[in-house]
Amino acid sequence: MTTVHAVPSPATAGFRPVAAVLSVALNVPGLDLPTLLAGAGRLAPDAALGTRGADPDPAGGPTVPTDPGAGPGGAGAPGDAADGPGWPAERAAELLGRKGLLAKEPATRFALCAVHRALGLPPKAPRRTGPADPRTAVVVSSNLGNVATVGDLAGRLRDGGPREVGPLEAPNASSNVIAGAIAIWFRFGGPNLTVCSGATAGLDAIWLAGLLLRVGRADRVVVVGVEPDDPQARALHAARRGATPGRPLRAGAACLLLGPPDPSERPLPPRDPADVAGREPALPDPTETPERPLALLGPVRDGTSFGGAPVDEARLGADHYGAAGVVHTALAVRLTAGTPAVAVRCGDPVDGVRETTVRAVPR
Amino acid sequence: MAATITASAVRTCFGDGPATWDALRRGECGVALLRRVDPRRVGVAHGYPIADDRPFGPGRWLADCVTEALAAAGVDPRRRRVVSLVGTGLRESAEVERAALAGAVDFPAERLHFGPAVAGAAPGVGPVVTLANACSAGGHALALAQDLVETGEADAVLVGGADGSSASMLAMIGRVAARPTGRVRPFDTDRTGVLLGDGAVVLVVEADRPGAGLARLLGTGLSCDAGHETAPDRHGILRAVHDAYRRADRRPEQVDLVLAHGTGTALNDETEAGVLAEVFAGCEPGPLVTALKGAVGHTSGGSALLSVAVAIEALRTGLVPPVVGLSRPTPEAAGLRLVRDRAVAAAPRVAQVDAFGFGGLNAVTLLETT
């Protein structure tokens, strides 16, 4: 369960940002964020988000939003790809290109689509080549990303023995397959983490991303929250003691591109000559980084209680589970277009609660 | 900057930490027939199992280590800010397989991560974050733990690593092996591949207190190859090595001992031996090199921390256990000072620990005597 709500202005006093949000994107099939926000009575989001995303499908967008909270009229606006309806897994090749996608599970596809959108890349953009960028880290939060593959492999082994499985399936048997695939796809060579701590995983991932920035392990961090909704994932999600009845698992991904809160105050640590000798500069492509952050993130706190009326819960109508902290931070970034600060909380009664504050960038 | 490791607790096929150290010192091999899976179904017959076949073994072994390590460190999570980072390759994936075969989930799914196990053994602990970072997960957790105490975000970090084996991963290592593997033989010409070992390790990391604790944690370098999902990459590993030396403010000639990743696979051992030869080129005589997987198997998420725990014992006792299963080194490894046949007395002061994992994840740790 994740909640997002506006924080009164006094709560922003003493705000100490730990990261700047440089870009945001969602890839949640069936969720149309502009419609959702408009329907929630919020100020209509400004153009800060999604302006660098390309229209994924000139023919009218990959899906028709089916979110129960979505009102008529705002669905899948062409040109608003970074947070318009998400690409379903089976159509991910239309955004990402087909090469290398065949063996990828749905969760990996959602994640790659979200990163692709956050980077503002056009559909089927040429893949980055050359050496990996050692200063960009990847932190993924997901609990159920590969459980369908693991269960499927177990079934085939029981029925047919080892000849029923192939070595190309090996990456999917490891729980870090999504983060590894993102690093390889986009050539991100910095620290690579997969957080699977249950309902708090999304904000745990943001916490660790802030740590990587603070101690100089990375200049920017690609944070991705993602879950699938296959039968195996749904069964496990429902079998939690901390589950909320009536809130099913929703598939999809969100991506936050984070950087230091004030780059000018954080000189780059000295690089080892071996990192750069004979290679192209590893600094982010200036076209990939907006000049001004979209929002600032405060420290992630360990919540002490669980309760309160979740403002957007009914409207969202579903649970993003391990992705929730990232999905709703992305949503909160949109809300800062009309509100100075937005609180984000995720967790459940068993896994605990994490909170953070997303603040608009002072003008 | 540095941190202090104030306690260590271990579970392997040999038993607890003292039992494991005794077996390693004597050069024993813990290989045995697999206990919890049918070899005909996965195509692998051997492993390094813990004699505990109940469900959720990794979480139970981890919880035992948490209890032991907290007591040894004298840390009370109710009185200090203690968080926990747990590295794992497979989490409790064996239970996901069991549920899939049964068509029903008969356990609370929160138990797929290690929050409940750690919190149950460490009342008052803050966030428990499980990191699924493949075979270098423990090294990644250790890196972040040092960051947390150095920045003052935590007073102490319970750094864990735990893994058992899943049928799906066993089948994969069987499929990529050149021929059936009866034991792990790191850096040996006749190596055939890796086998999985059950295990859990917990280290307690606290702020730097020179002269105190078990060992000084100097630094851990991290990198991702971003190249291939399962094959190691020299450039990516070297980035982690250089990052470790820069963070630790040490030079290769200061290192006396290396605990290699040494999986006994064709690709890892060739790549790692080449990297070690390159890093220590010009160092005379160069560090002693040992590796644990011939004795305890590949303990996956726990393997980096197990190597750290054994490095601590080597630094404290001056004794370096041999590479079990090694009789004829490969050409790439021939120039390394591999410890063979029996433990040697060497009085090392600085040790390097390698850990590499699927996804191209590299973690290289440096530690030294207190």
TrEMBL record, chain A:
Signal sequence, renumbered to the chain: none
Organism: Micromonospora humi
Protein name in UniProt: Beta-ketoacyl synthase, N-terminal domain
SUPFAM superfamilies: Thiolase-like
Occurrences of domain Beta-ketoacyl synthase-like N-terminal (ranges): 105-246
Segments of skewed composition (Basic and acidic residues): 263-278
InterPro entries: Ketoacyl_synth_N, Thiolase-like
Gene3D superfamilies membership: 3.40.47.10
Annotated Low complexity bias: 50-69, 78-88
GO molecular function: acyltransferase activity
Region (Disordered): 48-88, 258-295
From TrEMBL, chain B:
GO biological process annotation, one example: fatty acid biosynthetic process
Alphabetical UniProt keywords: Transferase
Domain Ketosynthase family 3 (KS3) per the UniProt entry, residue ranges: 1-369
Transferase is among the record's keywords: yes
Coiled coil: none
Annotated GO MF terms: 3-oxoacyl-[acyl-carrier-protein] synthase activity
Pfam family for this entry, one: ketoacyl-synt
InterPro entries: Beta-ketoacyl_synthase, Ketoacyl_synth_AS, Ketoacyl_synth_C, Ketoacyl_synth_N, PKS_Beta-ketoAc_synthase_dom, Thiolase-like
Similarity comment: family membership: Belongs to the thiolase-like superfamily. Beta-ketoacyl-ACP synthases family.
Name this polypeptide is given: 3-oxoacyl-[acyl-carrier-protein] synthase II
Source organism: Micromonospora humi
Lineage of the organism: Bacteria, Bacillati, Actinomycetota, Actinomycetes, Micromonosporales
